[in-house]
Design a protein that fits this description.
Elements: H1 6-9, H2 14-20, H3 46-54, H4 68-81, E1 85-89, H5 92-103, E2 109-113, H6 118-130, E3 134-138, H7 143-149, E4 154-160, H8 172-182, E5 185-189, H9 194-197, E6 207-211, E7 225-229, H10 231-244, H11 250-261, H12 263-282, E8 287-291, H13 301-307, E9 314-319, H14 322-331, E10 337-338, E11 348-350, H15 362-367, E12 374-378, H16 384-398
Parallel strand pairs: 2-3, 2-4, 4-5, 5-6, 10-11
Antiparallel strand pairs: 1-7, 6-7, 8-9, 9-12, 11-12
Helix pairs in contact: 2-4, 2-11, 4-11, 5-6, 5-10, 14-16
Length: 402
C-alpha cells in the first residue's frame, strides 16, 4: 500500500487521525510505525546532499532536525490540534524555551499567568530575565489585568488552561482578542486537556505548547514536548532546534505516536474517574475545598464547559491542618504513586507547595493559590472505589497527630 492517505485523512475524524495520521503507509508499516534509530541519513549523490542540506529538496539529513519517526509524531499531533505544523522537542520545558528563544529578543515584554507550572515560572522569572526579557505575572482569570499590564513591548502572552493544579480557566476567545489588539503571540499550554478535550488554536490561540511527557504518552515512560501552530510561527522553531538541538529522540517519538492512538479513550476515562473522585472528596470531613472544574460550584465551570469536551483528570484539594496534615495524608496512602508526574495510567499524588512549586517564593505561591494544605491528585485509570479507599487511609492519618 502506498502513502495515498492525505486526500481522505484530512477530512477524517479526530479518533481516526489519532490512529492513522503521520504514517507513511507501506506493506511493512501499515500496522506498526518503524523507529528510524539513525543519527544521519544517506544521500544518492553530492548534488542531492547539497540540495537537502540547503532545504531546496525535502528529505532527511540529520536526526537533530529531520527524522521520519519524529515527523510522524509531529504530523499526528498537528492534525489533532488542528494546526498547520508541529515541532517536537526533548521535553515540555524545552518546548517553552524554544518558543521564547525563537520569538523573543532583549527588550521584549511577556505577560504570563501567575499560576503556571512552577518550572515555567522559573524559566520566565530567572532565565529569560538574564537575556533582557521582562516578564509580568498576571491573574489567569482577569483579562482586564492583562490589558492594563501590557506595554508597547509586549510580544507574548503565555498561559495554561486549566491551570496546574487549581483548574483555573482562561477565557481563550477573550485572550485571543487581546493578543490581536496587542499584536502579540498567544501561546496556550494544553497539557491538562490535550487535543482530545480542547483545541486552543480553534479558539484563537497562535501556538499550543505540550509537555508530551504527560497525557500524550499516557504511561509515564518517556520525556517529550511540542509546539503546534502555523507554518510561519513554527518554522523558526524548527530552525532553532536545528542549531541548538533540544529535539525529541526517535524512540520517544515512537512512544508518543502509540500514546496518541489511545488518547481519546484514555482522556474520557480520566475525566470520568476524576469527576467521581472530586464529587466524593467534597463530602469528606477535613476537606476545606476541592479544585476541579467539573464541579458546578467551581468558578470556571461554565467557561470550561463551553471550551472543553471534558474536565480533565487533575484534582487539587485543601485539607485542614496545613503541610503537616497534607504530608501525613500522602505518606499513608498506598495505592497512589507519590511522584510529580501526571497524565499516567496510574494515579499520582503530590504536595505542590514543597515539590512542583517549591522553588517559588512564598509570595509567588500565595499569589498562585498554592497553600500548604493543598494536595494534587492526577487521577489514573484504576477503579474509583480503590482510590477512595486509599484516600480514606490518608484522611485517617491526617486527622490523628503523632
Amino acid at each position: 500500500m502506498t502513502d495515498d492517505s492525505g486526500d481522505w485523512l484530512s477530512s477524517a475524524g479526530s479518533r481516526t487521525q489519532a490512529v492513522r495520521a503521520g504514517i507513511r503507509r507501506t506493506h511493512e508499516a501499515e500496522h506498526g510505525e518503524p523507529i528510524f534509530a539513525s543519527s544521519s541519513f544517506l544521500f544518492a549523490s553530492a548534488e542531492e546532499a547539497e540540495a537537502k542540506f540547503s532545504g531546496e529538496l525535502a528529505g532527511n539529513v540529520y536526526s537533530r532536525y529531520t527524522n521520519p519517526t519524529v515527523r510522524g509524531f509531529e504530523e499526528r499531533l498537528s492534525a489533532l490540534e488542528q494546526g498547520e505544523v508541529a515541532a517536537a522537542t526533548a521535553s515540555g520545558m524545552s518546548a517553552i524555551l524554544a518558543l521564547c528563544m525563537t520569538h523573543l529578543r532583549a527588550g521584549d515584554h511577556v505577560l504570563c499567568s501567575q499560576d503556571v507550572f512552577g518550572a515555567t515560572v522559573g524559566l520566565f522569572d530567572k532565565v529569560l530575565k538574564k537575556f533582557g526579557v521582562e516578564v509580568t505575572f498576571v491573574s489567569l482569570t482577569r483579562v482586564d489585568d492583562w490589558r492594563e499590564a501590557a506595554t508597547p513591548q509586549t510580544r507574548l502572552l503565555f498561559l495554561e488552561t486549566p491551570s496546574n493544579p487549581l483548574n483555573a480557566i482562561a477565557d481563550l476567545p477573550a485572550f485571543a482578542q487581546l493578543s490581536r489588539d496587542l499584536d502579540a503571540i498567544l501561546a496556550v499550554d494544553n497539557c491538562f486537556c490535550t487535543p482530545a478535550l480542547q483545541n486552543p488554536l480553534a479558539l484563537g490561540a497562535d501556538i499550543v505548547t505540550h509537555s508530551a511527557t504527560k497525557y500524550l504518552d499516557g504511561q509515564g515512560r518517556v520525556l517529550g514536548g511540542a509546539l503546534v501552530g502555523s507554518e510561519a510561527l513554527i518554522a523558526p522553531v524548527v530552525a532553532f532546534n536545528r542549531s541548538c538541538g533540544p529535539t525529541m529522540s526517535a524512540f520517544n517519538a515512537w512512544i508518543m505516536l502509540k500514546g496518541l492512538e489511545t488518547l481519546d479513550l484514555r482522556m474520557r476515562a480520566h475525566c470520568l474517574n476524576a469527576q467521581r473522585l472530586a464529587e466524593w472528596l467534597v463530602e469528606q470531613p477535613g476537606v476545606e475545598q476541592v479544585h476541579y472544574c467539573g464541579l458546578p460550584n467551581h468558578p470556571g465551570h461554565a467557561l470550561a464547559a463551553s471550551q472543553q469536551r471534558g474536565f480533565g483528570g487533575v484534582i487539587a484539594f485543601e485539607i485542614t491542618g496545613g503541610r503537616e496534615a497534607a504530608w501525613r495524608f500522602i505518606n499513608h496512602t498506598q495505592l497512589m504513586s507519590l511522584t510529580a508526574n501526571l497524565g499516567d495510567a496510574k494515579t499520582t499524588i503530590i504536595h505542590p507547595a514543597s515539590t512542583t512549586h517549591g522553588r517559588l517564593t512564598e509570595r509567588q505561591r500565595s499569589a498562585a493559590g498554592i497553600h500548604e494544605g493543598l494536595i494534587r491528585i492526577a487521577v489514573g485509570l484504576e477503579d474509583v472505589e480503590d482510590l477512595q479507599a486509599d484516600c480514606l487511609k490518608g484522611f485517617s492519618a491526617a486527622q490523628h497527630r503523632r
